[in-house]
Amino acid sequence: MGGSQGAFLMTMAVPTAARRDNFFWQLLNRPACAAALALLLVIMATSLAAPWLAPYSPSKLSIMSRLSAPGVSHFFGSDELGRDVFTRTLYAGQTSVMVGAAVVVFATLAGIVLGLAAGYFRRLDTPVSRLIDAMMAFPDILLAIALVAALGATAVNVIIALGTVYTPRLARVVRASTLVVRELPYVEAAKALGVPTPMILLRHILRNIASPLLVQATFIFANAILAEAGLSFLGVGISPDIPTWGTMISQGRQYMDDAPWIMLFPGLAIVITVLSLQLLGDALRDFLDPRLSKGA
């Protein structure tokens, strides 16, 4: 590992107490981060409150009002079956946010286990690293399609597939950070004092590499939402009976000329959500790395 990369990981791994105290305040002082966080909170709140905010049922059909343009009766218009696009966009947000959050949890837990094993135990470094490299050799979307096709098109299987796809990314970050932190004096002192290995991993290493994990988890959240939409668009994701942003776009593409709103609003929801998460991740990375924050 080069000196510059090691310095970056050390600055990311050991934030000072003063920066922890005003962490959220300084983040909110960044206009891009504050705007991204506000948009993200609005999208999550409206999606979770869909049963109370939506004027119709997401599966209610109304042939008489099919392909209606946006108006008072249908804020975002209606689709080819007369279903309210605004309602379905809200309910689809529930699915996308739930899948994205579950993928982050899955990938984080699996990535931490693999990364700590490879970074702390020297004998496990080579086999675990080769496993990570082999998983990353496949394009993300192709590996996800293969896993969903093998497991079945359900929400749980989509979460497992995408979690498996994004685990190597986080595992590499954990491994690289662990390789740096395990050589620091306080870890060596803990070993000399006979502190149990699980305690060293959790209290002395994992706590001090939380910053890069947080940044990486933010990017995985965005990528998972985008990948889930891609799987649904291709017809290999969650069942079409469950509204998702990708499914709505896929169903509306044949009406692109006559009713573009069927694709427009779920597409905007994806763009805003992913962009907000990316901006938040960039702000966290800049804030948690002192060298970047000085230049900002």
Automatic annotation (TrEMBL):
It is found in: Cell inner membrane; Cell membrane. It is a multi-pass membrane protein. SUPFAM superfamilies: MetI-like. It comes from the Bacteria. CDD domains: TM_PBP2. GO terms for cellular component: plasma membrane. This is Putative binding-protein-dependent transporter inner membrane component. The lineage of its organism: Bacteria, Pseudomonadati, Pseudomonadota, Gammaproteobacteria, Enterobacterales.
